[in-house]
Design brief:
single chain, 120 residues, alpha+beta, CPE0013-like fold, 2 domains, 5-stranded mixed beta sheet, 3-stranded antiparallel beta sheet, 2 helices, 10 strands, elongated, binds iron/sulfur cluster
Length: 120
């Protein structure tokens, strides 16, 4: 099976042609550097994404706190992760890097704040 994907590791955005045989990446072409091969392997066999979204916050000037996962999580859990975070409400003050949810959905990634928000 062949797949065509675009490497998103850098702005060059190389168009990769990936050959998958017996559940393994057998060949990658179109990459300018070795990171493209690594990306093709992850994207075709175990795709992951860093989730960036917001959660509700009270006791501050803003209604939403920007957050992200501490590391990429499996791509097929992204929607479930965002749905879970829609139900979360935190209370200010919050510091950048503070853990909002530990081990989200058993992925070993935490949800961390990406902004300081002071209490009223
Ligand atoms: S293969 Fe290398 S040069 Fe091409 S987009 Fe990926 S990281 Fe950038």
């Amino acid at each position: 099976m062949n797949r065509e994907i675009i490497c998103i590791n850098c702005p060059l955005g190389c168009r990769l042609e990936v050959t998958i045989e017996e559940g393994k990446v057998a060949k990658v072409t179109g990459n300018t550097c070795g990171k493209g091969v690594e990306y093709a392997q992850t994207e075709c066999l175990n795709p992951t994404r860093t989730v960036t979204t917001t959660v509700s916050i009270k006791n501050t000037l803003y209604a939403l706190l920007p957050v992200r996962t501490s590391k990429p999580i499996p791509k097929d859990l992204v929607t479930k992760c965002v749905q879970y975070l829609r139900r979360i409400e935190v209370k200010a003050p919050v510091r950048t890097g503070e853990i909002i949810v530990e081990n989200i959905l058993g992925t070993e990634a935490d949800i961390i704040a990406t902004k300081n928000l002071e209490a009223l």
